[in-house]
């Protein structure tokens, strides 16, 4: 028996398609980015709060090589980009998922041209990549405080200590 492909897979967007796909999304558009290696409560709370700021949301994921360059450990990411993109796309609050191999998502931000740029509370607004550009075209930038003290690094530490 053959089963249909999950509809969420249509939300996964190669970087070279981002400009056109983002242009078709409802506005105001929210943009956020990160590794999202092992999705946890902190992630999904933050993503839902970010999405509530606009009418649609693009999430840009670090590629596996980009995650490694962040220095999170030799065994990171635990989940490869393909899997992280699928899990992210399955979330109702996410409208489009793309990725970036550079050290920052600036090129994806410029291609998507969001009205709202968001990062987690560990990022002061003045340090958020793309803040100057988004504010320059009239958009806003938000650093959403953490509601749940969770991190993938801490989660992996707990698992390894068992």
List the helices and strands and how they pair.
Elements: H1 18-23, E1 29-34, H2 41-51, E2 56-62, H3 64-69, H4 81-89, E3 96-100, H5 106-112, E4 116-120, H6 131-136, E5 140-144, H7 152-161
Parallel strand pairs: 1-2, 1-4, 2-3, 4-5
Highlighted features:
17% strand; alpha/beta; 7 helices; 162 residues; 5-stranded parallel sheet; globular
Structure characterization notes:
Keywords: ATP-binding, Carbohydrate metabolism, Nucleotide-binding, Nucleotidyltransferase, Transferase. It comes from Aromatoleum evansii. One of its GO terms (molecular function) is nucleotidyltransferase activity. Residues 31-124 form the Cytidyltransferase-like domain. It is a single chain. Helices cover 34% and strands 17% of the residues. The protein is of the alpha/beta class and 162 residues long. The protein has seven helices and five strands; from the N terminus they run αβαβααβαβαβα. Strand 4, helix 6 (131-136) and strand 5 (140-144) form a beta-alpha-beta unit.
């Amino acid at each position: 028996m053959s089963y249909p492909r999950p509809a969420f897979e249509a939300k996964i967007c190669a970087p070279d398609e981002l400009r056109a796909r983002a242009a078709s999304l409802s506005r105001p558009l929210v943009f956020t980015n990160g590794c999202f290696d092992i999705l946890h409560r902190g992630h999904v709370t933050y993503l839902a709060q970010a999405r509530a700021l606009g009418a649609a949301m693009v999430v840009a994921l670090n590629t596996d090589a980009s995650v490694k360059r962040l220095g999170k450990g030799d065994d990171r990411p635990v989940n490869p980009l393909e899997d992280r993109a699928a899990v992210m796309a399955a979330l109702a609050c996410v409208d489009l998922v793309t990725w970036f191999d550079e050290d920052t998502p600036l090129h994806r931000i410029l291609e998507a041209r969001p009205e709202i740029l968001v990062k987690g509370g560990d990022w002061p607004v003045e340090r958020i990549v793309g803040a100057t550009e988004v504010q320059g075209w009239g958009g806003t930038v938000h650093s959403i405080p953490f509601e749940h003290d969770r991190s993938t690094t801490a989660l992996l530490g707990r698992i390894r200590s068992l």
